[in-house]
C-alpha cells in the first residue's frame, strides 16, 4: 500500500498493492493496521454506496458540523470521479484550500478526508459507483452544504455544467455557512 500526502495536512491518497494473475486481480481495500501505521486513526463504523447514472453529476460540497463531523475513506468502484476535499476548519493554515484527485475503478485509488472538511465529487463517466467509509453516523441536524462553485474557494471542476439536485444548487456560500470547526 502506497500512501501519499497531499498539499493539505492529513488528506492522503492511498494506492493499494494490486495482485494480478490470469484470473483477474485482488487487493486489500481496507487494512486498519496499515492505515493506523500511516497516521489514520479513524474508527470507521459505516459504509455508504452511491450510484450516479449520468456523467457530469455533482454531489457536494457536504459535511456535518461537530460533534457529528465525519472522517471519510472514499473510492470509486465503477466509472470515475473527480473527488474534492475542502478544508473548512477556520483556524487551519489551509482553511479554504481544496485538493482534487481522480478516482477510478481502474486506478483503485482512495482518498482519506479527515474531520473538518467539506467533500464533493463530479462523475466523469456514466454509471459511476462511489463507496465511502465514515467514522460517525449521519445526523440530519448537523448536515451542511456549501456551493460547489463558491468563488472564495475556487474549485476547478473542469468545463462542465453539472447535474445538481436543488439542495446542492441552492447551498449557501462558505461565508454564509454556520461551520463550527
Structure description:
By secondary structure, the chain is mostly beta strands. The protein has one domain (2-176): Sandwich (Jelly Rolls). The protein has helices at residues 32-37, 166-169, and strands spanning 2-5, 12-15, 19-21, 24-26, 46-52, 58-64, 72-78, 80-87, 98-104, 110-113, 117-123, 128-134, 143-145. The strands form three sheets. It has a six-stranded antiparallel sheet, with no helix packed on it. The chain is globular.
Which characteristics define this entry?
mainly beta, globular, Jelly Rolls
List the helices and strands and how they pair.
Blueprint: E1 2-5, E2 12-15, E3 19-21, E4 24-26, H1 32-37, E5 46-52, E6 58-64, E7 72-78, E8 80-87, E9 98-104, E10 110-113, E11 117-123, E12 128-134, E13 143-145, H2 166-169
Antiparallel strand pairs: 1-2, 2-10, 3-4, 5-12, 6-11, 6-13, 7-10, 7-12, 8-9, 8-11
Query: Termini distance?
Result: 31 Å
Helix content: under 10%
Number of domains: 1
For this structure, what is the CATH homologous superfamily?
Answer: Jelly Rolls
The DSSP helix count reads 2
Strand line-up in the sheet with most strands: 1-2-10-7-12-5
Q: How can the largest sheet be summarized?
A: 6 strands, antiparallel
Please write the string of helix (H) and strand (E) elements. Answer: EEEEHEEEEEEEEEH
Give the CATH class.
Mainly Beta
Based on secondary structure, the structural category is: mainly beta
Mean pLDDT: 96
Overall geometry comes to globular
Structure summary, number of beta strands: 13
| Radius of gyration from CA coordinates | 16 Å
Unreliable stretches: none
What name does the CATH topology carry? Jelly Rolls
